Amino acid sequence: MTELRLSAFRTHRNTVFPLGPLTLFRGPSGSGKSSALQAYEALARLAGGDTLEEALASVAGGAPACVPHRARPDAQGRRGFRIGCTVDGPAGPVLLDIAVQAEPELRMVGERLTGGGRTLLSTALRDPGLRRVEAAWHTAGAVPVTRAPLPDDRLGTALLPLRVAGKTAGQRLVLDAAEQVVVALRSVFVCDPRPELMRAPVAARDGLLRGACDNVAAVLARTRHECATRHEALVAAVGAGCRGPVEELAPQVLEGGLVRAVLGRAAGAATPLERLGDGELRYLALCLVLMTGPGVLDMDPVAEVLPARQALTVLADGLDRCLDPVQARELLTVARQMCERGHVRLVGTVRGGAGEPEGDVWGEARGTGEPGVSVVDLGRERKVERV
């Protein structure tokens, strides 16, 4: 996904955000950083098959909260929002745009999939009394366009593989474009480590890391044995961001099939994970997420794509929350290294804004002078800088 469009969403109007391998949204509270990630997550969940209600469940206030501020209802009392994205791949740049009615009833009232200058799919709500939209997709056969009804609470693009036969060149073009968009959007892991949940022992078999990272101890026990090289790199990264030397991240088996993680030290007793500060726990969990892959994360893998070729996108709201400047700088280094390899992308939000001190992740990124980070500054004058 190379572009996020918020035509009308919460505080954003007619806004286009380019996305690179590592993109940070930076700005003061209320500038719309979290809103951008919420729109991205909503598109990802829709592509995964969620209904509109399910896709917007993570937004505080639900669908009505997504409507732009001060948006007035029309004569029928309807209000809504519009979001979209661009996905690059073998089919070229493919654009997906959706229009959602949030009030009085939640429903998809319009969707458009375009590629190569051609409209590949379009939907429209023709009869408000019916729980469906009228869809038309490119065929380029004996009939240039195929028309059929689709549900008004799901993403039509994600349903196309079930409706399009792929017999004509036009149908194959539609399927290729739809698959490109769905695969890119489904390959998303939303991550927000919760230190207060990470300190308790967990079941040893709980080996898929959840977004809150509350089962990080069990996952560390698993990854320690699966890839020694990656585990060694993780230990080095954790040592750079945690207080005191770290020589190992090891599991400690407890009664009842539980496990906790400990940090091995050069001298003296090991430090249990629960003794670490909030910043250290968030830093450790984010390093683990960036240095692993879809097979270790609690997400729906894209079965059509070989594991070695799957590109994971991590969404991290408050990427630098609880982190001190040293941890922020080290985490940025890890993120840049992982993103440069091409198997992980990161879209996150960080503190800071115009006129604020250079103590946040953006300040550290600009200070290094190294390439690889795209920063979207949501201050008074929105701008994108690449450093």
Description:
- It is a single chain.
- The chain has 387 residues and is α+β, with helices and mostly antiparallel strands.
- The chain has two domains: 1-187 and 313-387, Rossmann fold (3-Layer(aba) Sandwich); 196-301, no CATH class.
- It has ten helices and 18 strands.
- β4 and β5 form a beta hairpin.
List the helices and strands and how they pair.
Elements: E1 3-9, E2 12-18, E3 22-26, H1 33-47, H2 52-55, E4 79-87, E5 94-103, E6 107-115, E7 118-124, E8 132-138, E9 145-151, H3 156-163, H4 169-186, E10 188-190, H5 195-198, E11 202-203, H6 216-226, H7 228-241, E12 248-253, E13 258-264, E14 271-272, H8 278-290, E15 312-316, H9 325-340, E16 344-350, H10 361-368, E17 374-377, E18 383-386
Parallel strand pairs: 3-16, 3-17, 10-15, 15-16
Antiparallel strand pairs: 1-2, 1-4, 4-5, 5-6, 6-7, 7-8, 8-9, 11-13, 12-13, 13-14, 17-18
Helix pairs in contact: 1-4, 3-4, 6-7, 7-8, 8-9
Any idea of the CATH class of the largest domain?
Answer: Alpha Beta
Give average pLDDT, whole number. Answer: 89
CATH topology of the largest domain: Rossmann fold
Q: Which structural category do the helix and sheet elements fall into?
A: alpha+beta
Strand percentage lies at 25-35%
What is the total domain count?
2
Largest sheet: 8 strands, antiparallel
Largest sheet: spatial strand order:
2-1-4-5-6-7-8-9
Shape: elongated
* Low-pLDDT sequence parts: 366-370
Instruction: Please count the beta strands (DSSP E, at least 2 residues each).
Output: 18
The tally of helices reads: 10
Q: Just name the CATH architecture of the largest domain.
A: 3-Layer(aba) Sandwich
Helix content: 25-40%
What is the distance, rounded to the nearest whole angstrom, between the alpha carbons of the first and last residues? 20 Å
What pattern of helices and strands is seen along the backbone? EEEHHEEEEEEHHEHEHHEEEHEHEHEE
Q: Kindly provide the radius of gyration, computed on alpha-carbon positions and rounded to a whole number of angstroms.
A: 22 Å
